[in-house]
User: Fold this.
Amino acid sequence: MSNRLHDPFRTAFDSLDEFADLISQVLKCPVTIEDSNHRLLAYSTHDERTDSARISTIIGRRVPEKVINQLWKEGTIPALLKTNEPIRVKSIDEVGLSNRVAISIWKQEEVIGFIWALEIDKSLTDDDFSLLKQAADAAKNKLLQLQTRKNKKEERSQEFFWKLLTGHLKVQEEILENFHTLQITPSSSFAVLVFQFNKNITSKEEQNISYLLKTNQRLKIMLYTIDCNQLILLISAEGLENPLSELEQFSKVFVLKMGDRYGVRDITPVLSGIYKDYQKIRQAYEETLSVLSVKQKFPFETKDIYNYQKLGIYQFLGLLLEKRKNEEYENYSLTKLHDYDQKHNSNLVETLEIFLNNDNNINDAAKELNVHANTLNYRLKRIAEIGEVNFKDPNQKMMLYVDLKLEKYQGI
Amino acid sequence: MSNRLHDPFRTAFDSLDEFADLISQVLKCPVTIEDSNHRLLAYSTHDERTDSARISTIIGRRVPEKVINQLWKEGTIPALLKTNEPIRVKSIDEVGLSNRVAISIWKQEEVIGFIWALEIDKSLTDDDFSLLKQAADAAKNKLLQLQTRKNKKEERSQEFFWKLLTGHLKVQEEILENFHTLQITPSSSFAVLVFQFNKNITSKEEQNISYLLKTNQRLKIMLYTIDCNQLILLISAEGLENPLSELEQFSKVFVLKMGDRYGVRDITPVLSGIYKDYQKIRQAYEETLSVLSVKQKFPFETKDIYNYQKLGIYQFLGLLLEKRKNEEYENYSLTKLHDYDQKHNSNLVETLEIFLNNDNNINDAAKELNVHANTLNYRLKRIAEIGEVNFKDPNQKMMLYVDLKLEKYQGI
DNA sequence: GAACCTTTTGTGAAAATCCCCAAAAAGTGA
DNA sequence: TCACTTTTTGGGGATTTTCACAAAAGGTTC
Assistant:
């Protein structure tokens, strides 16, 4: 056959599955159709020859994440997003991928899906490539229908999510009903995750985000929405062994991928605590916002904190400052140390802070201060003397830590 | 001479010093007259023979504290407070005291002073004892005059102190003027010290307190007053090298002496911070009251804390609890640990608390828990896993500590 | 009761921390 | 300048802490 022949795909067909079988018949190889997020839309059944990647894709109704990652790294997906020509993929044994050809399905300037053809017995010819292009074109309309249906659902879920975030849904039954209508199974525990971008999120970035979230298979994202420069997610924490660390891991990977794949950098992820009661979503959301505000005030000390839980004392530093303002308290030890520093041009206060920052570890703190461990020891002895500090008393140390940070806070 | 002869002290005399010389002449030995607080009121000058204790008493215009302590320990002062008979004191070399005889001066049921006669060359006879009794009786009126003058001054200072404590004196000049009128030199820094008794202070105890305070030579007590079951002091912190520890030391000694000497137990001392501005006395006073209230709530954890400075996190636990109530926050790690404890009948939470209480010292904590250090290590590993706690992060640990204590606070 | 898991305790070697001493360097004041 | 104090650094040994491993004890489940 040649591309000058009659287009075999210009026939009516009811379902995408039927269409997949048609392509499979024409090209004589197994065919899979995915949406832009690599979710399985349809697959041919007439042919039993297949590879393990295709099997897991069909079983999971989506392309396995490690396969997607591999295809990104190796350049296939970036290529598919640039051209509407078929792309040949060499077999990748690590992920069970045999030789195949892929083509992207376009709607104007946007990729809305992919067709995959496995080259199990035969390699596809140039003519086959042309047929594939025609098939991609023919698939477009069917996919668009699916998309609009999805869009409507998405709109409804957006509205619902904002109601939850702002605490407008107060009745448990009502919340559960909404989840049911949107065909989302509410999980027994959840967290709110916010990614703050350094500028407002463009619609192009929105698509990229959507792609990343949909292709992610680590966590179940129940709802998500975008607000100016913030991407807000409601994530299920059900069945996770270490929810906090897994959520953190996920956000790190997301930030990494946004940078690597789309060149979007400076994204700050923040997490709420984990809750079971859906009426507390608003509170969880407020937690994330408060983390963001603290991170702005203490960028250095909170650089590894993304989680409201782990904010530690920073959770209430603002509150304390207010108390302090009212009572004109001053930390006696710190005052004396400051005085000494001033008089003798030393830096006992800084030494103390770094020591406390480093969890009382002399070696680590000495390294950070670029002094000998014995020097630090000596200074600590002096600090204990001058400031009348007992370094065996956790309470005293905490107070010093808090007051040191409060000083900084005030300095801002 | 015998006691049947004419009383040689029934003559008029202008000053107590003159009177001391008279006694000295009659008894033929050096004589010293003190008030009830062992402050020097008068001493004979006709005789140069003396001992080192007397010299320091005259130089310092008060009996040295170590001498007083010795006389208490050894029973002389308690005896003098019981009887109006002369008491003989054997020489005590450690404090430079040679043989002497003492007698107390009474006004009704109360001792208002002492007369000391040194037995340098001769021992006093029974007749001399009778004479001493007559002398003590004759000294009474003179001492009473001095007392009433003092009382008036004390009343004025009481009023002044309360004005300071309640913040009614806001002008620096006015405060200084008051100090000047009362012939008190205001020191450059001060602290408020409160002793809380377990019941209202009786007038008998008031005298004992006054005695202890006046005979103390460690610290300069600028003002003091009594309010129901509280003894409130304004103490100078000038010239002290380690004011906080010296103040603590002083309060410990005071509590000890009240117990040992007068059988008054269960006294809780509390200290404010150290301030320089006299307008902050009210604040300092409020600090002490807040320490007392915290100590009531956390008797165990604050059992070694007497100082607002050293309250540490307990300084603001109440405030935090309020915040927590509003935001319905729960510490994820603690929740998980509690759950685990419940399910497996373990005590990870308690373990964690004791570990944190002991400044992360595994050995100490293991001892307190009565388990092997390795057991504690194992538990901590489990705590880190189950509660997703990183024990290298001081911030996380502080948060756990705070939340643990808050739980207790709520439990109260 | 057997199989399995969790917890406790013990042992010992490696690693680290602590502590004392002393020398050098830096700073201070007459 | 010199004497003096304070601070820094280094060495090295005693002590503690840490860690891995193993055995025993206690609990749970089938």
